[in-house]
Structure formats: structure tokens, C-alpha cells
Amino acid sequence: MIGPDKTECVRTTVIHAGPLRTIGDVEFATAGWLDWYNNRRLHGTLGMISPIEYENAHYAALNREPPTV
């Protein structure tokens, strides 16, 4: 993660409730934020769907399964 992303992650109350007291709290909040950002957030340039929905639609249009990671 880069600086602005870390700041957004720590300042947001969507992913965690209350102050981050330990390194484990920070790691948990970061993992949750990254999951939301990469998979579930609605993205304006993708037609207000999540990145994962867009990717699945792309591979469905190609009549292929998405690659496994």
C-alpha cells in the first residue's frame, strides 16, 4: 500500500470500529480495507459495479472462467 491508501484505511471507520491499538489491529484493518477496495467497492468508471463483478462479466463475455490466483 502507498501512503494515501494507508491514511484512508486508518482514518475510515467503515472497516474498523474504534482506535487501532496494536500492530494486529492495523494489519486486520489493512486486510479488510484492501479486500473492500479490490473486490467490493463500487467503481464509477466500471458502471458502478465492483471490480470483481466487472472481471466476472468480462470473462463470461469471453465464455471463459476467470483465472485462479
Written account of the structure:
With 69 residues, the protein is an all-alpha fold. It has a domain at 42-69. The chain is 55% helix and 0% strand. It has three helices and no strands. It has helices at residues 3-11, 23-40, 51-61. The chain is elongated and about 45 Å long.
Shape: elongated
- SS summary, helix count: 3
Q: Which regions contain 5 or more consecutive residues with pLDDT less than 50?
A: none
Query: What would you report as the Rg, rounded to the nearest angstrom?
Result: 15 Å
Determine the fraction of residues in helical runs and give it as a percent range: 55-70%
What is the beta-strand fraction?
Answer: under 5%
What summary fits the major beta sheet? none
The CA-CA distance between the termini, in Å, is 19 Å
Q: How many beta-strand segments?
A: 0
- Helix-strand pattern, N to C? HHH
Mean pLDDT: 79
Structural class: mainly alpha
In short:
Residues 11-51 form the Integrase catalytic domain. This is Integrase catalytic domain-containing protein. The chain is an all-alpha fold.
Features:
69 residues, mainly alpha, 55% helix, 0% strand
Topology:
Elements: H1 3-11, H2 23-40, H3 51-61
